[in-house]
Design a protein that fits this description.
Helices cover 34% and strands 20% of the residues. It has 145 residues and is of the alpha/beta class. It has a 5-stranded mixed beta sheet, with helices on one face. Helix 4 crosses helix 5. The protein starts with a helix and ends with a helix.
């Protein structure tokens, strides 16, 4: 595949924009009937397997956290998600877009991420109703954990 085709796929395939790779284990938290099924399916297509659920008892390569304003404490959810992945692995926080039910203020996301010890590295349009924020442990903190 050419470099141009790779870039075209990144623009059209949501999972490619999120940086998922074949054979990764991606744990999904906060699934409900309002999640973006197209995004879920594209991730499963890229990784070559189904997303694992909250009952998965091993370390995942990434976490997909669907979170709505009424879901409770975002900091607690992020800390819990961090316990499911290795240091440096991404936690993709997916929140409803502005004006949608369950919208989470960007300042709340930033505050919760910082309190949980995470840095936001990327924000993308993750679907018709969802925004994705890539959160990782800061490089300086990796060696201290």
């Amino acid at each position: 595949m050419s470099a141009t085709a790779d870039h075209a796929e990144e623009r059209t395939n949501p999972a490619a924009r999120l940086g998922f790779q074949p054979e990764q284990v991606v744990q999904e938290i906060g699934y409900d009937d309002d999640v973006d099924q197209e995004l879920r399916e594209s991730i499963e297509e890229v990784i070559g397997s189904e997303l694992v659920d909250e009952e998965y008892d091993d370390v995942a390569d990434a976490v997909l956290l669907w979170f709505r304003d009424e879901d409770g404490d975002l900091t607690d959810a992020l800390v819990d998600a961090l316990s499911l992945v290795d240091d440096g692995a991404p936690v993709w926080l997916l929140t409803p877009k502005t004006g949608r039910d369950g919208y989470v203020e960007p300042s709340d996301i930033n505050d919760a991420a910082q309190t949980a010890g995470l840095s936001q590295t990327k924000s993308i349009n993750a679907g018709k109703d969802w925004t994705g924020n890539r959160l990782v442990t800061p490089k300086a903190a990796k060696g201290k954990r």
